[in-house]
Specification:
This protein is an alpha+beta fold. Helix content is 25%, strand content 35%. About 6% of the residues have low confidence.
């Protein structure tokens, strides 16, 4: 018996020693530009990603860390960059836009622990791992003369417009822009670019533009955000030297036809916080269908889709709806990006605006497409019900339908969205009568009114059921 007790004691000592040795070797060091970061809480590895104490690390960078206990949300800001993380959620919000993470932020031993590489790179730092010494090295990015570097941001105002210029040290080859609501802002992403030493331009107090922010969205993307007090028309273009991007905001042109939402049903209060994602089909390098007259191209589908989507967005906002537009300009967005963005935003409804075409010039009229999914139940309304609301409203505004609502389970924006989703095909660019109609303001406004009415009816139904 004594021998057994002695053997068990020896084994416990060995196991304890092994555990202590592992703990000592598993200590993870942190450094910023070669200087150690001290903290009373050690970093730790979770699912192959290093989590670090938020305040100790990011306040050492000169950042500000804020905690919202009610929302269980930590916000890290540095300069004009902002990263929001919700505890146990793998979706972060970088400068107002969602982005997926491999591991979520967590509360461990009463400390807020966040993924160091993800947040550091969003704030414009480089992160390396020293496996030999088990140290996370955070480094300030150095500018490579061969790398596109954003070196300046300017703001100018005239009687007709506001102008924001973004300047690089070399040719700007790729960028995309879009707008967001609640609050209003225009976002410009510059691919393969890093931030140089730039300062935010001073903006005179005015009724439209509130400020300009910029950040390193990821290691390959520089993000510029123009904050607005209200929606204002904007266009983005590349300067003649290809080294500057110019965002022009018009003072004189209303964002959509100056028609009110008269005739639209009232949106109930419970539905006003439900997010509606609006997808203007095609865009950028993808023109969609093309309308021809006398052998000449006279209309690209992408343009009328965007026009209708912008009008609809404005009508919905007038009624108090919460909206997000996949694209607000003539930019390219991939097919799979569209449902992915809606899912990341946890949208309540998704609507894709299109117009139709066919090999036959005889086909005409509108069409509504849908796909009932099990996940529709999360929004308390089925895609088919949403499609029926659209069908009814479109008949009132546009007249005869090409077909009744059609179920299309193979379409990506219908089968990959996790919320009720529909596609509206407004009319046929391949039909001479429809094409002439599509090119009028009345058609575009009526299309927008019908779609807005369908959305409001669907939102109201979803909160009343």
């Amino acid at each position: 018996m004594a021998k057994r007790l002695f053997g068990l004691l020896v084994m416990l000592i060995i196991l304890a020693s092994a555990s202590l040795s592992y703990a000592e070797n598993d200590v993870i060091g942190l450094s910023l530009d070669g200087q150690s970061i001290l903290s009373d809480t050690t970093a730790m590895i979770v699912s192959g990603r290093t989590l670090v104490p938020a305040r100790a690390v990011f306040e050492a960078m000169g950042g500000v860390v804020a905690w919202d206990d009610a929302r269980r949300e930590v916000t890290v800001t540095r300069g004009s960059s902002e990263v929001k993380l919700i505890i146990d959620s793998k979706t972060a919000i970088i400068d107002g836009l969602p982005k997926d993470m491999d591991v979520p932020a967590a509360i461990i031993s009463e400390r807020t622990m966040i993924p160091v590489r993800f947040v550091s790179e969003a704030l414009g730092y480089q992160v390396d791992w020293d496996d030999t010494n088990r140290i996370v090295n955070i480094k300030t990015l150095e500018t490579d003369p061969l790398q596109l570097s954003i070196t300046g941001i300017g703001f100018f105002e005239s009687e007709q417009e506001y102008k924001v210029t973004i300047t690089g040290n070399k040719r700007i080859d790729a960028y995309k822009n879009f707008s967001m609501s609640s609050p209003e802002r225009v976002v410009l992403d510059i691919a393969n670019g890093i931030l140089g030493q730039i300062s935010t331009p001073i903006i005179p107090i005015n009724d439209n533009i509130m400020g300009i922010r910029f950040s390193q969205f990821d290691e390959k993307t520089t993000r510029i955000v123009v904050d607005l007090k209200k929606q204002i028309p904007a266009s983005v273009s590349l300067a003649e030297d290809d080294k500057s991007l110019i965002i022009v905001f018009s003072k004189s042109r209303a964002p959509v036809d100056d028609q009110t939402g008269g005739g639209l049903p009232e949106l109930v209060e419970l539905a006003k916080d439900k997010l509606v994602v609006i997808d203007a089909g095609h865009g950028g390098k993808d023109p969609g269908a093309i309308g021809f007259s006398n052998g000449q191209s006279v209309l690209y589908e992408k343009d009328v889709n965007l026009d209708v989507a912008q009008r609809m967005n404005e009508l919905l906002k007038q009624q108090g709806a919460n909206t997000y537009m996949i694209r607000s300009f003539d930019t390219s967005v991939s097919l799979l990006e569209r449902p992915a963005m809606a899912n990341a935003l946890n949208a309540h409804l998704f609507i894709s605006i299109h117009n139709n075409s066919s090999d036959s010039s005889n086909l005409k009229g509108f069409e509504v497409l849908y796909f009932n999914k099990e996940s529709d139940i999360s929004s308390n309304i089925k895609s088919r019900t949403f499609a029926d609301f659209a069908q009814t409203a479109l008949v009132e505004k546009l007249g005869i339908a090409f077909k009744s609502p059609q179920e299309r389970p193979t379409l990506a924006v219908l089968n990959k969205t996790s919320m009720p989703a529909i596609i509206i095909e407004g009319a046929f660019l391949s039909n001479p009568e429809d094409l002439a109609l599509i090119m009028t303001d009345d058609y575009k406004q009526n299309y927008a009114m019908a779609a807005a009415k369908a959305i409001i009816n669907a939102l109201n139904a979803s909160v009343r059921l």
